[in-house]
Amino acid sequence: MNKESTISILTNLLQRHEDAARKYREAAAMTEDRGLKSFLASLADYREGLYQENRRWLEDMPPSPAPISVSARSYFHKNWESIREALMLEKQAKIAEACRRSEEQISEYYREALGQEGIPLPLHNNLEAQHQKVLGMLRKAERMEKVPAQRDRPL
Description:
Elements: H1 3-30, H2 34-59, H3 75-78, H4 80-88, H5 92-114, H6 121-146
């Protein structure tokens, strides 16, 4: 893999994490349910953390223009209107489903990125560790979808 491919992966991850963090925060601000608000805020914080990690990696690389893929938007960003409607109507099952799908989408992107050859080993290890965090949040989102009482448990 060349430098631009690695930069492209990081740039696309940055966009996806930034989008998701912004929309999770917006969603948290729209709900009155304390458990759901806390869950959405924790998703925003964790995505913001992944954004910051990838930003540091990108800043350490030599400058190279890498266009952001048009598909590099988070599930939450792409489906915001239906999610916003679910928030306004307090359809928590739909919101939990959207969170799960968002985490599934980013997990799939990590799988694809980790399957690329030529990613420098330290970056590959970091992306693998991030993917494990994503999988942990995906499991939490799956539990939230199946058992609404999970919303009140700390992450």
